[in-house]
Amino acid sequence: MEPSGYAGRVAVVTGGNRGIGLECARQLAQAGARISLWARDAAALERAAQELAPLAQVHTAVVDIGQEEAVRGAAADTLAHFGKVDVLVNNAGILGPRAPVQDYPAEEFERVMRINLFGTFHCCAALVPAMVAAGYGRIVNVASVAGKDGNPFVSAYAASKAAQIAFTKSLGKELADKGVLVNAVTPSASPTEIFGALDEARKAALLANVPMRRFVEPEEVARLILWLGSEACSFSTGATFDISGGRATF
Ligand SMILES: NC(=O)c1ccc[n+]([C@@H]2O[C@H](COP(=O)([O-])OP(=O)(O)OC[C@H]3O[C@@H](n4cnc5c(N)ncnc54)[C@H](O)[C@@H]3O)[C@@H](O)[C@H]2O)c1
């Protein structure tokens, strides 16, 4: 992406205070976008905003994306601050517990769905009207290869990511003639905080299915999102873009 590729654009990145979201926000800022970071932790948001401040104008919203009213508030605040939103990266998400399905607490299953799936839905519902009114928008949903292949003991996570992919396909078709393109990315494992501390056995298990036999770096995922969030992505919508080191078979 040319440094000026996002000149004049405003991008919201949920969960933009760390991991893949922060890297994505950094690359968007370097490419010229103004940034709104949305996440739950005010102190972490402030640290991320200070880190990005030399690169771009940065706005922050403290919001739990699983709460509809809070998301509507964050959207109104961001639109009042910048006057528009061109790009929405639905990146915030949680893994939830690891447990066999018979031991999986129903309330935890619901929490994973509320944040990963309903969070994506709430953010889209809150910002799509402004994008449609402007006749331009790019939405990128950060799903996971787990949503295509499934992963043992994280059934809630995999189900939420599969649902996020189906949501992406539906919304992409819904908005295809409105100038608003909606796509998903499906990374394999990346060394961020989502897993907590990883011992060697867990690392080996995570890499066992990845033909390239390594983790994907947040920078690599962010580069794909950067393209999908840009005007250069002009004829793809409702699509799922793999970035799994060869793991995905469809
Ligand atoms: N790291 C991986 O291996 C991997 C692989 C595939 C997909 N993903 C997806 O990438 C996305 C980013 O994850 P990451 O790896 O950077 O992990 P991470 O744990 O470092 O980041 C997750 C971010 O989401 C935010 N968040 C969580 N719940 C929230 C809520 N209710 N409201 C607002 N913000 C909330 C966190 O504050 C954090 O900023 C997630 O959707 C994850 O499922 C990650």
TrEMBL record:
Tell me the SUPFAM superfamilies matching this sequence.
NAD(P)-binding Rossmann-fold domains (SSF51735)
Q: Which Gene3D superfamilies match?
A: NAD(P)-binding Rossmann-like Domain
SMART domains associated with the record? PKS_KR (SM00822)
Q: Which InterPro entries match?
A: KR_dom, NAD(P)-bd_dom_sf, SDR, SDR_fam
| Domain (Ketoreductase) ranges | 9-188
Q: What is the superkingdom listed in this entry's lineage?
A: Bacteria
Q: Which family does it belong to?
A: Belongs to the short-chain dehydrogenases/reductases (SDR) family.
Q: What is this protein called?
A: SDR family oxidoreductase
Q: Which organism was this protein described from?
A: Arenibacterium halophilum
